[in-house]
Amino acid sequence: MQQRVVETKYGKVSGAYHNGCWSWKGVPYARAPIGELRFRPPQPPVPWNGIYEALHYSPAAMQREDIIMSKLGNALTNLDEDCLYLNIRSPASDESKRPVIVWIHGGAFKQGSGVDPWFDGTSFATVGDVVLVTINYRLSVLGFLYLNEMAADGRLSDSGNCGLLDQIAALEWVKDNIEAFGGEPNRVTIAGQSAGAQSVAALMAMPQAKGLFAQAILQSGQAGVHFATREQATAKARELLRILQIGEDELSRLQSIPARDLLDAAASSKRTATHTPVVDGATLPDFPLNVLRLSKGDDDDVKLLIGYTLEEFKLFAFEDPSWHTLDSSQMIRRFESISGPVPEAAIEFYQNQFPKGAPFDSLMRLQTFRQFALPTLRLADICASHGGTVYMYRFDWKSTVGQLGACHSQDLPFVFNTLDAPGVSAFTGDSPDRKFVAMAMHRSWIAFAHCGNPNGNHIPDWPQYDLSHRPTMLFNVECKVEHDPAQSERELWESALPSI
Q: Start and end of every Carboxylesterase type B domain (predicted)?
């Protein structure tokens, strides 16, 4: 096995050559967040002597079972609280100064990993001459438990957004070290899907992240509209303390409880089951859309590639088949428990779009637009209104597996060109046209990383997004641009929910 040693700020690391590119796996970008560092912002790695062998992936962040990935035969098994590592794929560790993509995985801020084979960066390196970095960050209560309002003695008074601060620490590591791996620290694109895209929106609004990236890709995010307020996050923390039978004057006990017990305790209550980033007024000054509205088109605005899938919400019916047993009124009640009241006008609109007797498809589209498309369009609108460079897409290709359709996460192996990765065919099916769609998306992401423009001879001309025509690339077997393809839905929801 060919190996190559690279010098970083903290010491030498050894990587390996495989499948046409170099990889360095499990490189520490911060100290292990354990013991007294649990619920604290990440600290720089301790420098080492000798050579750190970066030949194997690190454990993923501690988390409970991901039902969807387990169904697909791609479950995570190597988990540890010591998880703050990153992975690099590069064509060469030379002086070429290639564009860099830093990928932030999704998973509702409670699951997922940067070591998932669906996110293998080999094709970005070999096809695109791009340096691809994937990261782990703290999840669930370990990453987003907000204790600030109760930490009167100052200890643990900077908790709450540790998972986002981990991402910033990884970006700082990239800025300081990526040139030695063949990358250009001033040509960094941050990219993510689902909670990863929400993270990208948060990073665009966080003062500490300023200057660490020049471009951003947001896939199927919610623009941070569902982040917690301080009051909501404090209520969740108090409920967790009640479950664990810990007093507010005993917060230090939280740093010694086994991580698995913390996760299980959080999952035992509906109120504490989900921990998200917190609009704490400090690390995250306000909800991302509000911060971006007030930015007024700063000179250093990032270029955006942003979009969603046509039938996002169908993934959650794959995770929980009970969705298929519900009638229309039951589905609406469940939607309301997730996102709040559903306007009557929206119910009528979607039921009229599909044949009678097919409430599942119509209401899945309703929740797709409300939860994913609407905040995505709002973010694009804000950035475009400031004169920013924005490219909008929608992923329309439909899986041949069950009723998954063009669901949430369906686009991931297309973007990474990892159709042969474990579990992918069980999710997408094995239709031969997958390869055409994958190459169109993959090359668009590569082009965007190189020059902030996804165009090339692999797709029809893709104009910048603007508020007059709203051009949107529709990725399917035949890729094409449509102007404002969801106009009627967009106008409905803008009228029904103007505050999002």
A: 3-493
